[in-house]
Amino acid sequence: MNTSEIIQESFYLLGKRIQLIHTDDRYTTLKYGDFGTINYIDDYGTIFVSWDNGSKLGLIPGIDKWKIVY
């Protein structure tokens, strides 16, 4: 999904629960399988998540991987 498609679907994605598959951020405590809730998508398509473990790490489409669970 490209950035413009992410932005167009931002209203659909807000509030959705996601599960992390992969992130390249070596400083995060997040790991495969962690869950969170999408709370904001910026103009660049970065998906900001309130993770259940307290992290606020944003995900970058095309670099990070996740799946919508509900």
Descriptive terms for the model:
70 residues, globular, single chain, alpha+beta
Quick structural gist:
The protein is of the alpha+beta class. It is built from two helices and five strands.
Walkthrough of the structure:
This protein has 70 residues and is of the alpha+beta class. The protein is built from two helices and five strands. It has helices at residues 3-8, 10-13, and strands spanning 17-22, 35-41, 47-51, 58-59, 65-68. A five-stranded antiparallel sheet has the order 4-3-2-1-5, with no helix packed on it. A hairpin with a 5-residue loop joins strand 2 and strand 3 (47-51). The longest helix has 6 residues, at 3-8. The protein is globular and about 30 Å long. 17% of the residues are buried.
Q: Uncertain segments of ≥5 residues (pLDDT<50)? A: none
Beta-strand level of the residues, as a percent range? 25-35%
Report the total helices: 2
Query: Quick check: average pLDDT?
Result: 89
Helix and strand sequence: HHEEEEE
Radius of gyration based on Cα positions: 11 Å
- Strand line-up across the major sheet: 4-3-2-1-5
Shape label: globular
The main sheet comes to: 5 strands, antiparallel
Alpha carbon gap, first and last residue? 18 Å
Number of DSSP E strands: 5
Helix content: 10-25%
Supply the helix-strand structural class: alpha+beta
